[in-house]
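[worker-b] picked up task from shared queue
[worker-b] task type: protein-ligand structure
[worker-b] ligand name resolved to magnesium ion; SMILES cross-checked against name lookup, match
[worker-b] sequence length check passed
[worker-b] input payload:
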Amino acid sequence: MTEPALVLKSVTAGYGDVPIVRDFSASLQAGSITTLIGGNGAGKSTLLRAIYGTNRLFSGQILFKGDAIERLPPWERLKRGVGFVPQGRCNFPAMSVAENLKMGCYTLPGSVHDAAIDRVTSAFPMLSQKWRTEAGNLSGGEQQILEMAMVMLVEPALLLLDEPSLGLSPKMQGDVFATVQRIAATGVTVLIVEQNVRGALLISDGALVMEQGRLFMEGPAQQVRTDPRIRQAYLGGNIQQTAA
Ligand SMILES: Nc1ncnc2c1ncn2[C@@H]1O[C@H](COP(=O)(O)OP(=O)(O)OP(=O)(O)O)[C@@H](O)[C@H]1O
Ligand SMILES: [Mg+2]
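[worker-b] inference finished, payload out:
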Protein backbone atom coordinates (compact mmCIF):
# COMPACT_ATOMS: atom_id res chain seq x y z
CA MET A 1 0.00 0.00 0.00
CA THR A 2 1.28 3.47 -0.86
CA GLU A 3 1.85 6.20 1.69
CA PRO A 4 -1.45 7.89 2.64
CA ALA A 5 -2.03 11.31 1.07
CA LEU A 6 -3.42 12.74 4.29
CA VAL A 7 -2.99 11.64 7.88
CA LEU A 8 -4.82 13.30 10.76
CA LYS A 9 -3.35 12.52 14.13
CA SER A 10 -5.48 13.38 17.17
CA VAL A 11 -6.66 16.63 15.63
CA THR A 12 -8.44 18.94 18.07
CA ALA A 13 -9.68 22.11 16.39
CA GLY A 14 -12.27 24.84 16.84
CA TYR A 15 -12.73 28.54 17.36
CA GLY A 16 -11.42 30.89 20.06
CA ASP A 17 -11.18 28.84 23.22
CA VAL A 18 -13.74 26.27 22.14
CA PRO A 19 -12.59 22.96 20.69
CA ILE A 20 -15.23 21.49 18.37
CA VAL A 21 -13.40 18.63 16.68
CA ARG A 22 -11.70 16.46 19.27
CA ASP A 23 -8.93 13.91 19.04
CA PHE A 24 -9.83 13.08 15.44
CA SER A 25 -7.54 10.63 13.66
CA ALA A 26 -7.89 9.34 10.11
CA SER A 27 -5.83 8.41 7.10
CA LEU A 28 -6.77 8.87 3.42
CA GLN A 29 -5.16 6.88 0.62
CA ALA A 30 -3.98 8.80 -2.44
CA GLY A 31 -6.61 8.92 -5.19
CA SER A 32 -9.41 7.75 -2.89
CA ILE A 33 -12.74 9.44 -2.22
CA THR A 34 -13.82 9.62 1.42
CA THR A 35 -17.17 10.89 2.68
CA LEU A 36 -17.24 12.62 6.04
CA ILE A 37 -20.66 12.02 7.58
CA GLY A 38 -22.16 13.73 10.62
CA GLY A 39 -25.24 15.57 11.81
CA ASN A 40 -25.68 19.34 11.69
CA GLY A 41 -23.13 21.02 13.93
CA ALA A 42 -21.07 17.84 14.36
CA GLY A 43 -17.92 19.67 13.26
CA LYS A 44 -17.50 18.52 9.65
CA SER A 45 -16.85 21.99 8.20
CA THR A 46 -14.63 22.73 11.18
CA LEU A 47 -12.47 19.71 10.35
CA LEU A 48 -12.16 20.68 6.67
CA ARG A 49 -11.19 24.22 7.68
CA ALA A 50 -8.63 22.85 10.12
CA ILE A 51 -7.06 20.78 7.33
CA TYR A 52 -6.92 23.89 5.12
CA GLY A 53 -5.74 26.05 8.00
CA THR A 54 -8.49 28.62 8.37
CA ASN A 55 -9.46 27.91 11.95
CA ARG A 56 -7.69 27.14 15.16
CA LEU A 57 -5.84 23.88 15.67
CA PHE A 58 -5.51 23.26 19.40
CA SER A 59 -3.43 20.11 19.13
CA GLY A 60 -2.63 17.19 16.87
CA GLN A 61 -0.83 16.76 13.60
CA ILE A 62 -1.81 16.99 9.94
CA LEU A 63 0.51 15.13 7.57
CA PHE A 64 0.13 15.83 3.88
CA LYS A 65 2.23 13.64 1.58
CA GLY A 66 4.28 12.80 4.65
CA ASP A 67 4.98 16.39 5.72
CA ALA A 68 3.53 18.10 8.78
CA ILE A 69 1.49 21.06 7.49
CA GLU A 70 -0.46 22.05 10.58
CA ARG A 71 1.67 25.12 11.28
CA LEU A 72 1.54 26.41 7.70
CA PRO A 73 -0.80 29.24 6.62
CA PRO A 74 -3.60 28.29 4.17
CA TRP A 75 -1.90 29.75 1.09
CA GLU A 76 1.19 27.65 1.81
CA ARG A 77 -1.01 24.55 2.10
CA LEU A 78 -2.67 25.48 -1.20
CA LYS A 79 0.74 25.81 -2.84
CA ARG A 80 1.62 22.33 -1.64
CA GLY A 81 -1.57 20.94 -3.12
CA VAL A 82 -4.35 21.23 -0.56
CA GLY A 83 -7.46 22.53 -2.37
CA PHE A 84 -10.58 23.60 -0.49
CA VAL A 85 -14.03 24.38 -1.89
CA PRO A 86 -15.99 25.81 1.06
CA GLN A 87 -19.72 25.51 1.64
CA GLY A 88 -21.77 27.95 -0.46
CA ARG A 89 -21.25 28.66 -4.11
CA CYS A 90 -19.92 31.29 -6.43
CA ASN A 91 -17.19 33.60 -5.23
CA PHE A 92 -17.56 36.18 -8.00
CA PRO A 93 -21.13 36.07 -9.34
CA ALA A 94 -20.92 39.33 -11.33
CA MET A 95 -17.84 38.17 -13.22
CA SER A 96 -17.86 35.93 -16.28
CA VAL A 97 -16.71 32.33 -16.22
CA ALA A 98 -13.54 33.46 -18.02
CA GLU A 99 -12.85 36.15 -15.40
CA ASN A 100 -13.53 33.75 -12.54
CA LEU A 101 -10.98 31.31 -13.97
CA LYS A 102 -8.45 34.12 -14.29
CA MET A 103 -9.04 34.98 -10.63
CA GLY A 104 -8.49 31.35 -9.74
CA CYS A 105 -4.97 31.56 -11.21
CA TYR A 106 -3.83 34.23 -8.77
CA THR A 107 -1.41 31.95 -6.91
CA LEU A 108 0.20 30.71 -10.15
CA PRO A 109 3.00 32.41 -12.09
CA GLY A 110 1.60 34.43 -15.03
CA SER A 111 3.40 32.25 -17.56
CA VAL A 112 1.24 29.20 -16.76
CA HIS A 113 -2.19 30.88 -16.50
CA ASP A 114 -3.25 30.06 -20.08
CA ALA A 115 -2.13 26.44 -19.81
CA ALA A 116 -3.94 26.00 -16.48
CA ILE A 117 -7.16 27.47 -17.90
CA ASP A 118 -6.86 25.28 -21.02
CA ARG A 119 -6.44 22.22 -18.83
CA VAL A 120 -9.57 22.82 -16.75
CA THR A 121 -11.70 23.87 -19.71
CA SER A 122 -10.81 20.62 -21.50
CA ALA A 123 -11.70 18.70 -18.34
CA PHE A 124 -14.97 20.63 -17.90
CA PRO A 125 -16.26 21.58 -21.39
CA MET A 126 -19.26 23.38 -19.87
CA LEU A 127 -16.85 26.17 -18.92
CA SER A 128 -16.00 26.90 -22.56
CA GLN A 129 -19.66 26.79 -23.55
CA LYS A 130 -20.48 29.38 -20.84
CA TRP A 131 -17.25 31.33 -21.24
CA ARG A 132 -18.83 34.81 -21.26
CA THR A 133 -21.76 34.02 -18.96
CA GLU A 134 -21.77 35.75 -15.59
CA ALA A 135 -21.07 33.10 -12.97
CA GLY A 136 -24.16 34.19 -11.02
CA ASN A 137 -26.30 33.26 -14.04
CA LEU A 138 -24.99 29.71 -14.26
CA SER A 139 -27.19 26.95 -12.88
CA GLY A 140 -26.43 25.80 -9.34
CA GLY A 141 -24.65 22.69 -10.61
CA GLU A 142 -22.64 24.69 -13.14
CA GLN A 143 -21.59 27.13 -10.41
CA GLN A 144 -20.43 24.25 -8.29
CA ILE A 145 -18.41 22.82 -11.16
CA LEU A 146 -16.89 26.27 -11.75
CA GLU A 147 -15.88 26.46 -8.07
CA MET A 148 -14.24 23.03 -8.30
CA ALA A 149 -12.54 24.00 -11.57
CA MET A 150 -11.12 27.16 -9.96
CA VAL A 151 -9.45 25.04 -7.30
CA MET A 152 -8.35 22.47 -9.92
CA LEU A 153 -6.40 25.28 -11.68
CA VAL A 154 -3.65 24.86 -9.09
CA GLU A 155 -3.58 21.07 -9.57
CA PRO A 156 -4.26 20.11 -5.96
CA ALA A 157 -3.37 16.62 -4.79
CA LEU A 158 -6.08 16.81 -2.12
CA LEU A 159 -9.52 18.29 -2.65
CA LEU A 160 -11.68 19.18 0.34
CA LEU A 161 -15.30 19.67 -0.68
CA ASP A 162 -17.89 21.04 1.74
CA GLU A 163 -21.46 20.22 0.67
CA PRO A 164 -20.93 20.56 -3.10
CA SER A 165 -24.43 19.36 -3.98
CA LEU A 166 -26.38 21.42 -1.42
CA GLY A 167 -29.53 22.92 -2.92
CA LEU A 168 -29.10 21.20 -6.30
CA SER A 169 -31.65 19.15 -8.19
CA PRO A 170 -31.06 15.37 -8.25
CA LYS A 171 -29.82 15.65 -11.86
CA MET A 172 -27.31 18.37 -10.97
CA GLN A 173 -26.23 16.45 -7.88
CA GLY A 174 -25.47 13.57 -10.23
CA ASP A 175 -23.36 15.89 -12.42
CA VAL A 176 -21.41 17.11 -9.40
CA PHE A 177 -20.79 13.55 -8.16
CA ALA A 178 -19.67 12.47 -11.64
CA THR A 179 -17.28 15.42 -11.71
CA VAL A 180 -15.85 14.43 -8.33
CA GLN A 181 -15.32 10.88 -9.60
CA ARG A 182 -13.53 12.16 -12.70
CA ILE A 183 -11.25 14.33 -10.56
CA ALA A 184 -10.40 11.42 -8.25
CA ALA A 185 -9.71 9.19 -11.27
CA THR A 186 -6.79 11.51 -12.10
CA GLY A 187 -5.17 10.62 -8.76
CA VAL A 188 -6.53 13.47 -6.64
CA THR A 189 -7.50 12.48 -3.10
CA VAL A 190 -10.97 13.73 -2.18
CA LEU A 191 -12.53 14.35 1.22
CA ILE A 192 -16.17 15.28 0.78
CA VAL A 193 -18.86 16.44 3.20
CA GLU A 194 -22.30 15.89 1.73
CA GLN A 195 -25.91 16.34 2.76
CA ASN A 196 -26.70 13.67 0.16
CA VAL A 197 -25.02 10.95 2.22
CA ARG A 198 -26.33 8.13 0.07
CA GLY A 199 -25.10 9.70 -3.18
CA ALA A 200 -21.71 10.54 -1.69
CA LEU A 201 -21.22 7.05 -0.27
CA LEU A 202 -22.00 5.53 -3.66
CA ILE A 203 -18.99 7.28 -5.22
CA SER A 204 -16.73 6.89 -2.18
CA ASP A 205 -14.12 4.34 -1.24
CA GLY A 206 -14.19 5.13 2.45
CA ALA A 207 -16.33 6.87 5.03
CA LEU A 208 -15.66 8.66 8.30
CA VAL A 209 -18.53 9.26 10.68
CA MET A 210 -18.26 12.16 13.12
CA GLU A 211 -20.46 12.61 16.15
CA GLN A 212 -20.08 15.66 18.36
CA GLY A 213 -16.63 16.34 16.96
CA ARG A 214 -15.29 12.84 17.51
CA LEU A 215 -14.68 9.97 15.14
CA PHE A 216 -17.57 7.58 15.69
CA MET A 217 -16.99 5.07 12.90
CA GLU A 218 -14.75 4.56 9.88
CA GLY A 219 -14.58 1.95 7.20
CA PRO A 220 -15.16 1.14 3.55
CA ALA A 221 -18.06 3.20 2.17
CA GLN A 222 -20.00 0.07 1.28
CA GLN A 223 -19.74 -1.23 4.84
CA VAL A 224 -20.67 2.08 6.48
CA ARG A 225 -23.58 2.44 4.05
CA THR A 226 -25.10 -0.82 5.22
CA ASP A 227 -24.48 -0.32 8.94
CA PRO A 228 -27.88 -0.23 10.67
CA ARG A 229 -26.89 2.71 12.90
CA ILE A 230 -25.81 4.77 9.90
CA ARG A 231 -28.91 3.85 7.92
CA GLN A 232 -31.07 4.87 10.83
CA ALA A 233 -29.31 8.16 11.55
CA TYR A 234 -28.20 9.39 8.13
CA LEU A 235 -29.99 7.43 5.43
CA GLY A 236 -33.56 7.94 6.56
CA GLY A 237 -33.76 4.56 8.24
CA ASN A 238 -34.33 2.93 4.88
CA ILE A 239 -33.62 -0.76 5.30
CA GLN A 240 -33.91 -1.40 1.59
CA GLN A 241 -30.63 -2.72 0.26
CA THR A 242 -29.41 -1.57 -3.12
CA ALA A 243 -27.33 -3.82 -5.32
CA ALA A 244 -24.59 -1.22 -5.94
N1 LIG B 1 -16.78 30.69 13.15
C1 LIG B 1 -17.24 30.03 14.21
N2 LIG B 1 -17.09 30.52 15.46
C2 LIG B 1 -17.53 29.85 16.55
N3 LIG B 1 -18.18 28.66 16.50
C3 LIG B 1 -18.38 28.13 15.29
C4 LIG B 1 -17.93 28.78 14.08
N4 LIG B 1 -18.27 28.01 13.02
C5 LIG B 1 -18.90 26.93 13.55
N5 LIG B 1 -18.96 27.01 14.89
C6 LIG B 1 -19.56 26.01 15.78
O1 LIG B 1 -18.90 24.77 15.62
C7 LIG B 1 -19.82 23.70 15.69
C8 LIG B 1 -19.62 22.82 14.48
O2 LIG B 1 -19.90 23.57 13.32
P1 LIG B 1 -19.58 23.03 11.86
O3 LIG B 1 -19.92 24.13 10.93
O4 LIG B 1 -18.22 22.47 11.82
O5 LIG B 1 -20.63 21.82 11.76
P2 LIG B 1 -21.02 20.93 10.52
O6 LIG B 1 -20.84 19.52 10.93
O7 LIG B 1 -20.30 21.39 9.32
O8 LIG B 1 -22.59 21.22 10.41
P3 LIG B 1 -23.53 21.42 9.13
O9 LIG B 1 -23.90 20.03 8.68
O10 LIG B 1 -24.71 22.13 9.69
O11 LIG B 1 -22.78 22.20 8.08
C9 LIG B 1 -21.20 24.31 15.78
O12 LIG B 1 -21.61 24.23 17.14
C10 LIG B 1 -20.99 25.75 15.38
O13 LIG B 1 -21.87 26.60 16.07
MG1 LIG C 1 -20.88 22.32 7.56
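[worker-b] attaching auto-annotations
[worker-b] The two ends are 25 Å apart (CA to CA).
[worker-b] releasing lock
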